[in-house]
Amino acid sequence: MRPTIGTVLSFLAAPKLWLFVFFVLPMMTMVLYSFWRVADYQIVADFTLRNYEKIGGNLYVGVFLRTIRISIYVTVLSLLIGYPVAYFLARKVRRFKLTLLLLVILPLWTSYLVRTYAWMLILGTQGVINQSLMAVGLIEEPISWLLYSDFAVTIALVHIYMPYLILPLYAVLEKINPSILEAAWDLGGGRIRTFLSVILPLSLPGIATGCLFVFIPSMGAFVTPELLGGTRSIMIGSIIAQQFGVAYEYPFGSALALVLMGIIFATAAISLRYGKPKGLA
Amino acid sequence: MSRETMNLLLPSGMSRRGLMRLMAASGLLAAAPASLRQAFAQDKSLNYFTWSSWGAPEFVADAKKKLGIDLKPTFYSSSDEMMAKLRGGGTRLYDMIVPVQNYIEPAAKAGLIEPLNPAALTNKKDIFQQFAESPQWRVDGKLYGIPFVWGANAIAYNRKETGEVDSLDALFDPKYKGRIALRDEPEDTLAIAALKLGIKAPYGMGEKELQEVKKLLISQKPLVRAYWKNVADVQNMLASGEVVVAWSFLAVIAPLRRAGVDAGWVWPKEGAIGWNESITPVKGTSKLKLVEEYANFTLSPEYGEFMARNTRYAPASKAAIARLEPELVKDLGIDINNVSRLVFKDIPKDKSRWNEIWNEVKAA
Fold it and tell me: Of A159, B31, B111, B293, which is least surrounded by CB within 10 A?
């Protein structure tokens, strides 16, 4: 039986309706709010640009830049550690492949919060690292910058988000046709040459996607920096959360969130544009 | 909508209360007709939106035994959560809440709470005057509560490391560099810095004073290990020895002592930040009389004594404190002779400026 026009239309309409209700509508609300203001504990719907003007000041520009900087550290570190892991899993491992992949995603089964707290036990002055270093006699006093610092925030975010980088990278690396590599060797390319001019360019889409999957949540992180950060580790996520909590400044919070989304969209557009496979595509 | 229609609409296995909770969580309730709540309870029960301490099983049992009231508690864990849920439709769910004094004005102006009839609160006579007559519980001449419990945020310290502490100077002492913790909250922390600078009315500070406070807090940053957000975090920091002196809640002291830390607690001589809480009716409750009955009960000596023994929080009733042994009173962490040291937390003159100054301190 051929589907009627009505059925087809309703099948098309359902996802659109879903998108409209759960994506477009909230988004539009946020855009509207960002031009409103709060007076006497109530949100007042009159048009103002004050929220955006405020974001342009030194304070918030500074916090945005800090957030971008930390997110870049997290992304680069995740890539440096995650790429070899993905490569090994995709191209070297024969046996236990599934088990090893499972190990990669295993941390995701534990709550984000638990993983953050775990780092306190590792990095604290009474933590594993400090206590072992002192026991061996390498240091006299515990190293205090391990915890409550940008270092702690970066390490914890790498740990939390790296699986999201490894998986897409693994998928791309695994799909590289072995005959291409054989061709490279036949033509006299050594290991390093083959990697740099064949594998690396072919894995660019995986790198781009993986890096985005780490960069985006890092930009919005607020629990980890609040728990592990020191007195200077403020990130924009905390400020946004503050506007929707203690401060009750939904309009300003919406404006901040939209600017954050703008930055993320721009980053995504650039990396997906340049993250196309090079050379052999 | 009648009870029957609602029952018909419910998925099987789901209670009406469950549905209400779900609707509140999704914000749908804001759009539901006001008559819904009435459909739920014609009986002697009160939907009690509160801190976990005041809705604990022993309190529920006590209310049932002494007043025949069924308390149906739902918990919040921060004042912001309370406000957000009331704004999101919670006014249709709950009959009463237990706000902290500085949330009364915002809640009243946002139309979330209902005033009480002062004549119904006969136990007011036993309440310390500074609580019974506090202007913070009155908005536009209407009474929104008489506090039954009070306390202060102050300094917790590790006696073994610091000896006795009696002043805010400890939080600014280079001797404890890297072993000091402050709270990540402007209305506590800016106020402490103001008290340290000798500013008597922190919540009325103008821009010039705010700038001085900011300068002081920025100069203090190298000494501070971390700003804590959650009370469990400062407890951990003190327990693990990450910090030895911290701005804190009283609630950390007992667990720290149990963990073997010689933890001290002091209201610094420059001042501590006081808080108090009362039963307050939620806007539009159909059971105002019952709420008033319960509110009056919380002011009674029996309730005060029961509360102090069960939770170690300090009753606002003189008559209740008179029933407690001196050792227990000492344990409550209150200092009745030094109530004048307390600065009761208030709405800053320019709240959003306070938030901004605090963010500037953190970003510096």
Answer: B31
pLDDT tens per residue, range B187-220: 999 999 999 999 989 999 999 999 999 999 999 9
Residue A185 banded pLDDT, cuts 50, 70, 90: confident
Residues of B in contact with A239 (CB under 8 A): 359
ipTM: 0.85
pLDDT tens sequence across B89-118: 889 999 999 999 999 999 999 999 999 999
Q: In Å, how far is A217's CA from the nearest CA of chain B?
A: 21
A152 has a pLDDT exceeding 90: yes
Does this chain's domain B3-148+277-322 share its CATH topology with B151-274+340-363?
yes
Residue in this structure with the two tokens 């864990």, named with its chain if needed: B77
Instruction: State how far the Cα of B152 lies from the Cα of B129, in Å rounded to an integer.
Output: 17
pLDDT digits (tens, 9 = 90+) for B67-84: 999 999 999 988 888 998
Check: CB of residue B171 under 8 Å from CB of residue B180: yes
| CA angle centred on B127, ends B124 and B133, rounded to 5° | 75
**Dist CA B361 CA B188 (whole Å):** 14
- pLDDT higher than 70, residue B3: no
Return the CATH superfamily for domain B3-148+277-322: Periplasmic binding protein-like II (3.40.190.10)
The CATH superfamily label for domain B151-274+340-363 reads Periplasmic binding protein-like II (3.40.190.10)
Residues of A in contact with B364 (CB under 8 A): 232
Residues pairing with B276 in the sheet: B150
Q: Where are the alpha helices (DSSP H) in B26-171?
A: 35-40, 57-67, 79-87, 104-109, 129-132, 159-162
Name the residue ranges covered by the structural domains of chain A.
Answer: 58-274
Q: Which of A231, A239, A248, A256 to mutate to test the interface with B (most CBs of B within 10 A)?
A: A231
CA distance B275 to B342: 9
Q: Report d(CA A9, CA B133) in Å as an integer.
A: 66
The neighbour count for residue B138, using CB atoms within 10 Å, is 17
User: Which residues of chain B lie closer than 8 angstroms to A59, CB-CB?
Assistant: 356, 359-360, 363
Q: Calculate the alpha carbon distances from A72 to A76, A195, B143, B226 in Å.
A: 6, 24, 54, 24
CA dist list (Å): B264 to B180, B183, B239: 14, 18, 12
Query: Taking the model in full, what pTM does it have?
Result: 0.83
Q: Among A239-248, B273-282, B308-317, which range has the highest average pLDDT? A: B273-282
The minimal CB distance from B227 to the residues A41, A59, A231 is found for A231
Contact by Cβ (8 Å): B306, B130: no
Please report, for chain B, the start and end positions of each structural domain, with discontinuous segments joined by +.
Answer: 3-148+277-322, 151-274+340-363
Answer yes or no: is pLDDT of B146 > 50. yes
CA distances from A263 to A152, A204, B359 (A): 25, 22, 21
Among B82, B85, B211, B225, the strongest candidate for a mutation testing the A interface, having the largest count of A CBs within 10 A, is B225
Residue B276 region by backbone torsions, left for phi larger than 0, else alpha for psi between -120 and 50, else beta? beta
Phi (first) and psi of residue B31, to 5 degrees: -95, -5
Contacts of B46 (CB under 8 A, 6+ apart): B69, B70, B71, B72, B95, B96, B287, B290, B291, B294
Q: Other C-beta atoms within 10 Å of A17: how many?
A: 11
Closest partner CB to B359 (pick from A40, A226, A234): A234
